[in-house]
Write a structure and sequence with these properties.
The termini are far apart. Strands 1-2 form a two-stranded antiparallel ribbon. The protein is elongated, with a radius of gyration of 18 Å. The chain has helices at 3-29, 33-55, 76-98, 102-105, and strands spanning 60-65, 68-74. It is 72% helix and 12% strand. The chain contains four helices and two strands; from the N terminus they run ααββαα.
């Protein structure tokens, strides 16, 4: 896989994970029983993307000029942030499902 293709794949996984977190937060705010389950699924997918990004995708880039490093990008930091936000989204969705009023739990 070329460097550009790896960067594009990494960015797309990160953006998809961020979108899943956002969607999870939005769905957990609604009061329908099926929305809580969908929010949990989206948050779990985002946690999976964060873990996948930390463990499998490592895009490192550094530029040296005359033996001095100018800058360095490591994709694991972006996925660590995604993992933290996704974990918060998962906790939020589960918390909202557990504390939902009885009429929306579907009992």
């Amino acid at each position: 896989m070329t460097f550009k293709a790896m960067v594009y794949a990494t960015v797309m996984i990160w953006v998809a994970g961020c979108a899943a977190c956002f969607q999870s937060f939005q769905l957990a705010r609604q009061r329908h029983r099926t929305r809580y389950v969908t929010a949990i699924v989206f948050a779990a997918a985002a946690v999976g993307a964060g873990l996948l990004g930390i463990s499998r995708f490592r895009v490192n880039y550094s530029q040296t000029v005359n033996g001095q490093m100018r800058w360095h990008i490591d994709s694991r930091w972006f996925f660590a942030a995604l993992l933290a936000i996704a974990t918060a989204a998962l906790v939020h969705a589960v918390w909202r499902k557990v504390n939902a009023p009885p009429s929306s739990r579907g009992q």
